[in-house]
Amino acid sequence: MISTGDLKKGVTIEFEGQLATILEWQHVKIGRGGAIVRLKLRNLRTGATIDRTCDAGDKFKRIYLDRATVTYQYQEGDQYHFMDTSTYDDVVLTSAQLGDANNYLIDNLELDIVSYDGEPLSVELPEKLVLRVTYTEPGYKGDTATGGSKPATTETGLVVQVPLFISTDDLIRVNTTTGSYVERA
Question: Where would I find the Elongation factor P C-terminal domain in this sequence (predicted)?
């Protein structure tokens, strides 16, 4: 069991009978009343984000998730296929389970799959990823490196704001948590 005083971002708990990861939490002391804790949670099975308030001192069951290294293989309709690198088993996730992670999946990408009691829930992407720009407007004479930005479409279909000097077929490094341009690769 974990108390509200021990909660932190990224911890997985059982909340209202569902597996949930804490996205944000805030301890609030109200004038004459008792303290409360505001939680922003993400349901691991459905991907839904919920906001809840609970009393300080409440206890929750802490959930420990299993992680395994997998390689992305291919997409078939709404299903994404991964291969477990240790057992060579095929692991299938839906786009709802992946959430925004499907914007970063390229062939043979190694990443970690998160599961609970043998049930695959989601994937953990590396913090930064190198993607190829498939289309962007050309830069013009007089454009500077710090002068502005323009949209660029990557090989996965993700649209990223990049500096004006980036052109089609360039490799760029993208931050997977924010979806923003980091540097030219």
Answer: 129-184
